[in-house]
Structure formats: C-alpha cells, structure tokens
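Minutes, project check-in
Item: structure for the 147-residue chain
Input as provided by the requester:
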Amino acid sequence: MSSFLLSNVLWLKAFHVIFMVAWFAGIFYLPRLFVNHAETSSKEVSEQLKGMERRLLLFVTPFALFTLILGIAIIVAYGSAWFAAASWLHIKLTLVIILFVYHGYCFKLVSTFKQDKNNRSGKFYRIFNEIPVLILFAVIILAYVKP
C-alpha cells in the first residue's frame, strides 16, 4: 500500500473511531433513560424523558451512519483480497449488523414510550443496556487483536 493511500486510510480509521465513540455514548445512555422511564410514575418526568429519548436517538443516528460509511470506505481502500482474508472482520461486521438492529429497535422503544405503551420493567432495560457493551468489547478485540 502506498504511503499516500496508507495516510488516507489512517484518516478514515481515525474518523471511523471518533464517530463510533460518539455513537456508543448515545447507545449506552439511551437505555438508561429507558430504565428511568420504565420506573417512573410521574407524568411530568415521563414527558421529559420522552423528549430526551427522542432527541438523543436522533442525535446519535448520524454518528452511526458515519461510522458505517467510513467503515465501508476503509474496506474499499484495503481491497477485496484483504476483505476476503480478514476473517476477524466478518465476525466484526456480524456484530455491527446486530448493533444496527439494536439501534433500530431503540426507535421502536422510543415510539412505545411515546405512546405510553411500555410494559417492560426497569430490569429488562438494565439487561438491554448491556448488549452494546458486550458488542463493543468484542468489536474492539476483533479490530485490534485480529484473532
């Protein structure tokens, strides 16, 4: 790989990680809002949480999309032979797809809370909150250790 291409790939990687960190910050915080929402009996608090949940999800969604776009750009820069040989990357991409499904499901949950139709407990959302944490651990290990 030429030094010019390598330099550009490093910039892609840097911004990929920056947007991923911003995305995960929101994906870690949103389920905590769900926990509070599920456990409140106050109509006023519930209304405030509805707005916070919606705004946070809409705020972090572009970070998710930029993470995806930059990840694809990195794969394209390295080429198809590298992609075919990088078995660790196929596992990572599977986890990323699961994370995007998780993110999409958060839209459904925000809508459920907005309509006052939540029937799940705070405990459910505490467990739900652990999914992106486990995915993050696995993705970081895959990306840096490349087992």
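Outcome recorded: The mean pLDDT is 95.
No further action items on this chain.
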